[in-house]
Structure formats: structure tokens, C-alpha cells
What does this fold into?
Amino acid sequence: MKLTILGCHSATPRTNTNPTSQVLEIKNHMFLIDCGEGTQVELRRNKVKFSRIKHIFISHLHGDHYFGLVGLISTFRLLTRETELHIYAPKGLKEVITLQMKLSDSWTNYPLIFHELTSKKSELIYEDDKVEVFTIPLKHRIYTNGFFFREKENERKLDMNAVLNANIDMAYYRKLKQGADVENEDGVLIKNEAVTKDPIPAQSYAFCSDTVYNESVIPIIKEATVLYHESTFLDKNESLCERTKHCTARQAATIAKKANVETLILGHYSTRYGSYDGFETEAKTVFENVLLAKDGKSFEF
It folds into this structure.
């Protein structure tokens, strides 16, 4: 599982900071999460292949989370894309994008499919044989979701020495990987645990975009491998959280601790701060395994 941060700052872009956007690579998928202004430039800078992006997840309709989307859609058209592009976003984004395309007579030459989100409860919005994606309802100034990406359970691993010694026909290897007991060539039932090893643990990634401190997300993200949680402010500016519906680094760490996640990544910093070291310091008073997002930085898990 690899996470590449394209932008991790709040509000407006600066010469050295970008608004929210990131790429998650999981089980051969490349998911784009949020698409702030300048995303396609950062995709190029980080050598991300445009053609691999087939699913885009937009948390909410504040500009620093989607103003780069229409430009990216337009670039896909200029590159003569043919593959479907799926966009999962709050209801209203389809209207915004299609109006821009209509007025500029720039309809895509590839299928552009919107999945409009309205539910205030967590729901499954994408699934295939490898990955599931759920919404994480958040509490912000407008309708907002985070996203929880979860690998499906991996197959068990064959202990080939044990398998061969047990005289099991190759035709049953698939069933063994799926956890079944099988009969060997002598008609003896072989227990699965005797000839297989535990699978590689499935990984998960929780993206919590703009939100006030919100413990209702904890059951959804519990024991996630990685949690990215907004941390717009430091403790000295905590009074701004309720009005703006954002969090401090310490509050993000509290969510991480209560959800028993493995790793917390902080981001969505207010550009009022000259240094971000304080975010890590304050978060670590609550939760030890803290990393700081940085534009252009990749994490592998």
C-alpha cells in the first residue's frame, strides 16, 4: 500500500504549498482522493500515470478539495482517453462539471460516470474482488465524507513441503488457498492449517477530510492500518475549531488512539504556521506513531 501526498494544506494554494489531493495505490488500484487546484501538475511532478486513474473520490465541495477536477477531466480529453472515469462525490458536483463542459463545448470523449453521494450514514460505494470503499460521514460546514479503503482478506499461503508430503493433488491447491480442508490422493482428509500458512494481513486506509472533532467515525475506522486525519490548527488556535469545523493535531491524535489505528498521518495544515513541527509534537502527547504529510512525499506500508 502506497500513499503519495500531492497537496496537504488548507484554503488557497501558495508558491510552495498545495491544497488537498493524494493518490492511494492499493491492490493494483490507483485511487485519486480529492483534487485541489494544481493536482494535475503535481501528478506530473510525481510521475503518476494519468491512465491508471479510473476512480476519483471527492470529500466535499469546498474549492480546495475539487477546483482541480475540471482541469484534470479536460486534460484526459486532450490525451484522447477512452477508459471510463468514475467520480464519487457529493450531489451537486455533476451539475458543476457538466455546466462547465456545456458552456465550453468540451464534452469528454470517454465515459464520465458520477456516483452522487447523499447519505449521512456510512455506505459501501465501491467494491471488486480485491478492495472495498466505504464513506466516513464527517461534520463540516457542508456535507462531507471521508473514505475508508479496505483490502479484502488475502488468500492463505501454501506450505509446499507440507502439501507435497500430504500427497495432495494440484487440483485442490485453489481450495487450500481459500481455507478449505481437502482429501488427498489416498482419500484422507487433510486439515487446512496443517498445509497452509496464515495470509498476509489485509491493510486499510482511512481518509478523514475536513471535520470538527467527531468520535462517530471511530467504529468505521477502528484498527485501520493508516489514518490520515485533518489537523488544521495547533492547540493555541483551538478556539477556531468550532467556528470553522476543523480539528487540532491533538484532537486528530485522540481519534487515532481511540480507534486503535497503527499509524496517524497529519495534514490539511493552516498556512498561518511557518513550521509544522508543532503538529507532530502536540499529537505525540496523545498518540506515538505520528507522521507528517508533506507535498510530494510518499509513504509505503
